[in-house]
# Entry
Amino acid sequence: MINLTYDDIQLVPGYSEISSRKNIDLKTKITTRFDLQMPLVAAPMGTVCDFAMANEMRKMGGVGCLHRFMSIGEQESVIKKLVASRTEDHINMPIMAAVGANGDFFERAQALIQSGAEIVLIDVAHGHHKNVKDAIEKIKTIKSSVDVIAGNIATAKAAIDLQNWGADALRVGVGGGSLCTTRIKTGFGVPNVTCLTEILKVANVPVIADGGIRTSGDISKALALGASTVMLGSLLAGTEEAPGLLIQKNNGLYKKYSGAASFDTKVTYGQEIRNIEGESTIISYKGKLDMVVSSLLDGVKSALSYAGANNLKEFRPEYIQITNSGINEAKPHLI
Ligand code: XMP
# Structure
């Protein structure tokens, strides 16, 4: 069997009666109980999602997952700030935060939930693990109305297990993120399209496609396969709302983008310098998040119109496998 990723496939246009992309509805679910107005989720990374990102994503109908690389007190105070800044406009967008699966994770989850977090994401690289089973069970005892997202996983077997353990959504993708070195360091991972396809055959809770999404075309491919949302790191890093200072270079402005398991993140947050499985880089400053998000959503709405789909439920176009020549043809290629 050939295992595929986003560049290996192309969606096939279908009959359409969509008269205006403005009428296309991108409503979706982040977990079994919580809805979003659009399918984008900011990744729980120190250089992607702190207060400003989570707050702005929420205003636009999406969600940001507050990263966990801070003390419990600090994370708690960000959640309280998010609760306090809730307005009628985004009253229904959930508040979401990450915890680990060992150490202080239970106290952290308790503090976050008491402060107003409605979704807790168990943020571990290998989610098909007994620690995750135990963590889901324990977090579920804190408050029944809180949804738990578990991952990351790459197989149908893992999806079935996590669902049986009580996960309310699955975070899917192993080693495919733009800064990941997991596949190089360990040899493990499954290309994203195959990984999503296999998991979506058995998923009965929403699937979050995570890692390796570089364009609105990739977002559209993940949604077309049946993912309910996509989680974005590099596409949102470098925006005004991403944490971190602007870095001035001769050729322009930048911000840092560091893998959650990178040397840089471990040094920044005073963690033990072991098990480095991520890179760190600087990324061009992109300006305000709303401009970046609207442009991504324009691309996704356009994709739905190519498929004749009014909403994400209807968006199940056929896809085909392409060759390297197809990949070259897909990019601007004027000689
Ligand atoms: P993108 O491609 O959107 O990916 O930048 C974001 C996702 O990458 C994962 N991630 C990591 N994976 N080592 C890894 O192996 C890391 O240091 C690392 N940091 C982030 C994570 O799933 C994130 O959502």
Remarks:
- The longest strand covers residues 147-153.
